[in-house]
Amino acid sequence: MKTETINFFDKVYQVAKQIPYGRVTSYGAIANYLGAAKSARMVGYAMNGSVGKDVPAHRVVNRKGLLTGKHHFEGTNLMQELLESEGIKIIDNQIQGFDKVFWDPSNEL
DNA sequence: TTTATGACTCCTC
DNA sequence: AGAGGAGCCATAA
């Protein structure tokens, strides 16, 4: 096994799992916390394998608070409903008050 | 094994 | 100020 690369994914899962209720974060924030600010895409890819890992991928959105990955969920607005269920308002796939619900791992963790 | 793509972000024109 | 291109690393074919 070697593969230190797994550390990156593993860390993403760990951070995503620690996202508090009613809060959201961005791929770049996680990537930055991991030291790979330019690898934000990998964070999103990591979410792809988050299924079966207790990782609330629906709490992770792009830097604009836009639900770019909602298309990857089962339904079409499943991600939105999950966030709304936590008290987060979403309009047109965009999180309202994103700055207020934004959770920075580098700041909180 | 190599090539291509992707749930993003930043820099430059 | 707005638009476009490049970079990042891992997964899939």
UniProtKB/TrEMBL annotation:
Assigned keywords, A-Z: DNA damage, Methyltransferase, Transferase
Gene3D superfamilies named among the record's database cross-references: Winged helix-like DNA-binding domain superfamily/Winged helix DNA-binding domain
UniProt EC number: 2.1.1.63
Pfam families linked to this entry: DNA_binding_1 (PF01035)
Transmembrane segments: none
Enzyme class, broadest EC rank: transferase
Gene Ontology BP, a term: methylation
PANTHER family found in the cross-reference section: 6-O-METHYLGUANINE DNA METHYLTRANSFERASE, ALKYLTRANSFERASE-LIKE PROTEIN 1
Protein name (record): MGMT family protein
Organism domain of life: Bacteria
